[in-house]
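Much of what follows relies on a compact textual record of a protein's fold. Here is one such record, which you should read through line by line:
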Amino acid sequence: MKAEQNELLTRVGPGTACGAVLRSYWQPVALVDEFNPALDARMAQRPVKAVRVMGQDLVLFKDDKGAWGLLDRDCPHRGADLSFGRAEGDGLRCPFHGWKFDVNGKCLDTPAEPAGSRLCDRVKQRSYPVLERSGIVFAWLGEEDSTPPPFPEFDCFAAPSTHTFAFKGLWNANWLQCFEVGIDPAHPSFLHRFLNDEALDAIGDNAAGKQFRSASAGDAQGERWPMTRIMREFHQPEISFEAQPWGLQLTALRPMTQELTHVRITQSIFPHTFVIPLSETLTISQMHVPVDDTHTYWYSVFTSFDGPVDKEAMRNQRTQYISLPDYIPNSGRHNNWGFNADEQRSSTYLGMGEDDINVHDQWAVESMGAIQDRTREHLGTSDKVIMANRRMLLKAIEAVQAGGTLPGPADASQAAAMRGPDTVDGIAPAGEWPTWWRERVQAKRDGAPWIAKAPTDKAVA
């Protein structure tokens, strides 16, 4: 890749070409949990947070009616930081001169002005549309007075609160290299390779970062294989992709015998979300939202197609490795991501722990540098998905510059197609896998208690 292309795809601040693309989509700005006093005692008295998204400094707060407000952080009076504002129930007041704003940015008070002043009527702080879905606060950061696209009704947002759990973590790297690791079908056979298998019944659906230690869906000649064994023994997947209304559907086939093939189908939702299976009935939808050019928050929604999730247990598992209230991983460059040479020789391919494979991905993206230098890459056949995604992103940049229609959830005309998307991970009859995976997906959806079932036709007497 040429240096100017790499620059184009990685810079996301206000006024940048790629930033304009990302601002055409709803973006996560915080977890609802970040305003939970049980997790952050500061929120009991003052539900206000400074947030930074795509190089923009914003302030997120709740009023006494529970409404969210997201405003530019610099006070429109003389630029003081509104994240230090006084939360007064009906709005946020700047401590510099007392100017006060409601959740919509309307100026409520300018107390130092003379009696009868109409200055408030002429001042409005820039505010951004906000909505709450599946434990995440989303915002529309597009041009002021522009109309956001319909919010997509993917499974992770359509499922009830009882069946979803949201979490996040900070990586010190550019958004694109974070996302590209997630859509790479070849890397699990290496980066997440375990040199030994574990008893399958020792792993639950909610285990943190253990998706490649769980059982595969389906049987191999009457035996359920651990994913660790499949990823280790069949490390040259046949990778393909197919365009979908939301982005790309990715297929990785690992032929095991003449009769059996391991099938892993995942989804890439443009511009920065992937959907993968964690088990036969649990999926992960992970978004990669730039804080700025060199920092990224990943947001994950775990969606159950079976019983309710245990949010407290899932949170407790993950807070072993990621510290609240800022969701910063305990491992990083400062401690070599927990690298252990003895472990690398005896139990894992990477040597950075067996319990939390998220740190494996964290190492991959952070070790590239804050912004990966793609001019030094040598891509191969197994990187075809990476190349396809970059072409989509370059095309989207051209579209937004020309005033054209952007792909995926930004295209309002495709709103009805923003459903699902489905994933699978299992062992199938080699020649029948296209039918097999559809049947597995349908069985999963038929068993989901929260998916509305079509009414059956009844005979008319």
Observations:
- The CA atoms of residues 28 and 138 lie 4 Å apart.
- The two ends are 69 Å apart (CA to CA).
- The longest strand covers residues 282-292.
